[in-house]
Structures are given as C-alpha cells and as structure tokens.
Amino acid sequence: MKNDIEELRKKYMDNPPEGLTSKDIRNMSEDELLNMDYFLNEDDLSADEAGVEGFFIF
Fold first, then answer.
1. For residue 9, is it within any domain?
2. Contact in structure between 26 and 13 (CB atoms under 8 Å)
3. Residue 43 resides in a domain
4. Exposed site from 8, 16, 26, 49, fewest CB < 10 Å?
5. What is the C-alpha separation between 27 and 33, in angstroms, rounded?
C-alpha cells in the first residue's frame, strides 16, 4: 500500500489539482492524499451505474 500512496503522491505532484502546489502535495499526510484523490474521482466511482436512475420496484 505504501508504494501505491507514493505513486499517487507523484501523480499529483507532477500535475497538482487547481489551487494546490507540488509542495502542498508533498506535505500532505497519507489520509489527506487519499481523501483528496477520492473526492477528485468520486464521479468516476459511479460510472458503473451510468444510465441507472433511481431504483425499480417490481
């Protein structure tokens, strides 16, 4: 898992999100980095449900 965190850190240091710098990313804790990644990609998480609106009752 440590390698995954460092890869994620490198990804965001090379291309920091708007409003952040590489230095900000470097100084983030693992939890802060994972939270940031989650919120930046949360729309992608529901891609499996694309086209599904609500739920169905039969």
1. yes
2. yes
3. no
4. 49
5. 9
Total number of domains constituting the chain? 1
Window from 3-12, 17-26, 36-45, 46-55 with minimum mean pLDDT = 46-55
Q: DSSP code of 3? A: H
Domain assignment of residue 28, given as a range: 1-35
For 4-44, give the DSSP string: HHHHHHHHHHHSPPTT--HHHHHT--HHHHHHHHHHHHHHH
Q: Are the C-beta atoms of residues 8 and 36 closer than 8 Å to each other?
A: no
Decide if 36 contacts 28 (C-beta within 8 A).
yes
